[in-house]
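Encoded backbone
================
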Amino acid sequence: MDRYGYLKAAAAIPSVRVADCAYNGGRIAALVGRAAVRGVEVVVFPELSLTGYTCGDLFLQPALLAAAEEALAELVRSTAEFNTAFAVGMPVAVDDMLYNCAVVAAAGEVLGVVPKRHIPAYAEFYESRWFASGAGRPTVEIELCGQSVPFGTDLLFDIDGARCGVEICEDLWVPTPPSSELATAGAEVIFNLSASPETVGKSDYVRQLVAQQSARTRAAYVYCSAGFGESSTDLVFAGNALLAENGTVLAAAERFSLDEQLVVADVDCQLLRNDRCRTTTFRHGGASGRATVAVSMPVADDRPFDRAVEAQPFVPADDDRRHSRCEEILNIQALGLARRLAHTHSAKAVVGISGGLDSTLALLVTVRAFDRLGLDRRGIVGITMPGFGTTDRTYGNALTLMRELGVTVREIPIRAACEQHFRDIGLPADDRSTTYENAQARERTQILMDVANREGALVVGTGDLSELALGWATYNGDQMSMYGVNASVPKTLVRHIVEWYAAHVAEPPVAEVLRDVAATPVSPELLPADAEGRIAQKTEDLVGPYELHDFFLHCFIRQGFSPAKILFLAGRAFEDRYDRPTILRWMKTFFGRFFAQQFKRSAMPDGPKVGSVALSPRGDWRMPSDASAAVWLAEIERLADGTPIDN
């Protein structure tokens, strides 16, 4: 693995000649060579790939078994110079019984042999005619290619620091796959050597099966099935290969190709370990696995990185998934609010409407909750509170949105009240300090709370997850509400939900306003507008781009990565937008503010969790308000200075 915990793995589909072991071994060796040039540390080949899966009764011929062992010996010898381990399929005879096996080898050494446990004998499968099951056999030492090697189903292989386990084809299809046991014994990467014939619809099922098993085991899963060259007497093998990680397919082969294929992906073993560590129901069994250590394989710093890095990890890139995600999140938010309204026997809610993204989403959620409860939308009291920095654009959008949605509209300017407050506390008229800004936020919150008291209503909070992470909220101002519906929705996703609502739900008048809201610069509008009446106080100019902060947040909280690894990934995700110094600048801001502003999150109101990252002190995130950021900030300083960091 490299210093960030990535193991470059591959599934290789070679050209096959049935029963021609020398030819097959040569093609496998060539693909191992290709993989080595690519920097691959381990490559998985199909089931029985040294002989071909479709040999039939030829498997019982001693000549074929001898040829397979000779081909393996030559394969191991010819690939000894490569820094690449491989798993290849072949029949192996042990104690007068024949087994369908995976042989794992590296650096001129056979590391171990794993027999298939579940031998199919139904439909088109006749494997039990030739092969015995390895289930229940104790691990023993056997002679293979002049070496004494372990043979058993409980083997784990340490390949350059990554713990790997093996199952074979049908093993995955049974109710309790061996990979579940291997994963709890410590395997982080599962190899599946397969030869699954193609039938209509089967490929989709296999993809779901592989993805689901990788998620269940919190592992990377390298699945490689036989392709062109296997006998087509009764079956066709389409060359299906998949690399999945914790439920996500990272790479896949082109099915029905006549060409040899090498499918490569960097799997994140560090991420898998972090996820297993935080998931208390996943515990390593420890005693059930036996490790076989491979030769350490040097990793070149300049090798390609075979993994897509999403710049917006909270926002699905696929249109269909993004559409369903937005709909689902809105429903979760609305259901949470509906439950709170029902519990408090309240038919009214108060929402402060600024014409910005967050308050717009909060209003849409509240409208949906009222509609689900069968409540009159006029029970939603929308209050716009223009102040010193309010622009005509946001003011107009706020009023239009409330009117078109049919809620009760109230306008309560805060300028005069704030000016009186400034005089009371002795704030100079030309002061534009934090006091000047926070006083406005607290005045608005006081209005919302007091109107809610008069109306017997709930104050619906508008602040989002990104603002909570940065502490970009006034304590006991917009930080406070009676129910915060946006509390676990990051800013990048808030924008997409508003845009989605405009495109798929809203009628034309509302849709037009929503599109303009999404296009408006994010701002608290606490400082006066510029000479042209435009927003002068832009949040992202002050604290940095939200797309970067959301990226940092996901990497830090969800994935548990260090600043060095976050920088490595951000450099790839944003290579066309931000240079290294810019990323480091805003990363320093993120970590500094995240730690310093925990006290605001410790006192945050209730709100629904909608995704895998949430900061509620009653839910996902426990952190003392006086914790130090020194470790993270020191690493960022070393990165800025160019000091090498070992992660």
Q: What stands out?
A: The radius of gyration is 30 Å. The CA atoms of residues 370 and 377 lie 6 Å apart. The chain is about 40% helix and 15% strand.
